[in-house]
Amino acid sequence: MAHGEHKYHVTVEWTGNRGTGTSGYRAYGRDHTIRAGDKPEIPGSSDPAFLGDATRWNPEDLLVASASACHKLWYLHLCSDAGIAVLAYVDQAEGTMTDGPAGGQFSEIVLRPHVTIRAGDDAERAAHLHHVAHEKCYVANSVNFPIRCEPVIAQAAAS
Fold this sequence. Notes:
Blueprint: E1 11-14, E2 32-35, E3 42-44, H1 59-82, E4 86-91, E5 94-100, E6 103-111, E7 113-117, H2 123-136, E8 147-149, E9 152-155
Parallel strand pairs: 6-8, 7-9
Antiparallel strand pairs: 1-2, 2-3, 4-7, 5-6
Helix pairs in contact: 1-2
Organism: Cupriavidus pauculus
Pfam family, one: OsmC
Protein name: Peroxiredoxin
């Protein structure tokens, strides 16, 4: 595991100028393109509640996805180290954001990973490793709201 400082460079380019810029709240589009190096571009917008395009990723989607992906990556690493073979992992994560007088904020993210492990592997240890993954997750350690994890561990059928 590399230690030290890691920098991430991302370009977000607004593509929603409909000809008059931000001359009025409904006069401009919320669309943007997210780029990082040679990676595939991510089409972005705002949440449809804020006049965004529902077919594009919004910042809130990306935050929930980041928390879910970071947890998953740590979890897979920890299971590998513990000799637990994860065969499948699907997380139906959900973030809750509330609007307030000073703006909105996330109140929580709930991760709901459904994990299938190899027949005979330690399901109790596999469940515990979700707690360790949460403690190590960079995203979870960086936000000011709770990220809860409600894992389901299933074992593959013995062959």
